[in-house]
Design brief:
Strands 1, 2, 3, 4, 5, 6, 7, 8 and 9 form a nine-stranded mixed sheet that branches. The chain contains 13 helices and nine strands. The C terminus is likely disordered. With 292 residues, the chain is an alpha/beta fold. It has one domain: Alpha/Beta hydrolase fold, catalytic domain (Rossmann fold, 3-Layer(aba) Sandwich), CATH 3.40.50.1820. The protein is globular, with a radius of gyration of 18 Å. The longest helix is centred in the last third of the chain and has 22 residues. Helix 3 links the parallel strand 6 and strand 7.
């Protein structure tokens, strides 16, 4: 099913964002944040479904793809206010903010700093400083966290071989590897091939220590209805993630496994992902109505 996607560039105080929008302008807004090593279009299979009834807004994170940033900067407590500024610029209210992978870390940082969302969804990510963070860092299969944290060396080794490097991750941690199509993989390579963008991608990892400090330093109850989603083939027990989010202040939390999906659930099983997000929006909306 083809949908019309409108593209624009939005100049904000510290960055310029590439914004993709689809769906009715007056409908309830859903804002999508992508992970690494992807761009806004990783959400396109989900947006194709969601845009039938919702205003869908997806961005390239600062420094990636069509978005620009003066200097590579990856700390999530900086990225989240950039998203907040975009919502104000676009006059979006009662937003459902959905973040996958690195985007999920940004969504959590948003919840720590702002209380204006209608709903939040965090997908396929571990949050720095929150359980099971230390266990994930100790897992040798998550070697790239440490590698990306090394200054300058990853850029030197990956530059010119971006497709080979990115393909490794799609093949290693997706169940439906063919769901990340060659066309999509080509878009992602283009979004990171510029050396500044490649560095920005690694900066998302180089700030994990600061992210962990920020996530644990800010003691604030998070009342926004929040859904944590994880592909059923992802390693780790989802209950550990539930405990981490609860300890991090999330008071209204639901978790769900997406059956038949690995790490790249939005592309592997978009219908199941959107069904889970939609159900979360409906259920939490009903709960709010009953409470008032």
């Amino acid at each position: 099913m083809a949908i019309n996607v409108a593209h624009s560039t939005v100049a904000l105080s510290e960055t310029t964002l590439h914004v993709a929008e689809a769906g009715p302008k007056r409908a309830a807004p859903v804002v999508f944040l992508h992970g690494w090593p992807q761009d806004w279009s990783a959400w396109l299979p989900v947006i194709t479904l969601a845009a039938q009834a919702h205003r869908c807004v997806a961005i390239d994170l600062p420094g990636i793809g069509g978005s620009r940033v003066a200097k590579p900067r990856g700390n999530k407590f900086w990225l989240a206010p950039t998203v907040h500024e975009l919502l104000r610029e676009r006059d979006l209210h009662d937003v459902t903010l959905v973040g996958h992978d690195i985007g999920g870390m940004v969504a959590f940082a948003y919840l720590k700093q702002f209380s204006d969302l209608g709903h939040a969804v965090i997908m396929d990510t571990v949050l720095p400083g929150l359980a099971p963070w230390e266990r994930v860092l100790a897992n040798p299969n998550i070697w790239h966290f440490a590698f990306h944290n090394v200054p300058e060396l990853p850029e030197q080794l990956v530059s010119g071989k971006v497709k080979v490097y990115f393909d490794y991750f799609y093949e290693a941690i997706a169940v439906r590897k063919d769901a990340i199509t060659e066309e999509a993989r080509g878009r992602y390579v283009a979004s990171y091939s510029d050396i500044t963008a490649l560095t920005q991608g690694f900066q998302f990892y180089r700030t994990f220590r600061q992210d962990a400090l920020d996530n644990t330093r800010v003691q604030k109850p998070i009342l926004t209805p929040t859904l944590y989603l994880r592909g059923s083939a992802e390693s780790g027990d989802i209950e550990d993630y539930r405990e981490g989010l609860a300890a991090g202040g999330v008071r209204n939390l639901t978790t769900k496994l997406i059956e038949g999906a690995g790490h790249f659930a939005p592309e592997e099983t978009p219908a199941r992902v959107w069904a889970a997000i939609s159900a979360h929006m409906d259920a939490s909306g009903e709960a709010l109505t009953q409470a008032t």
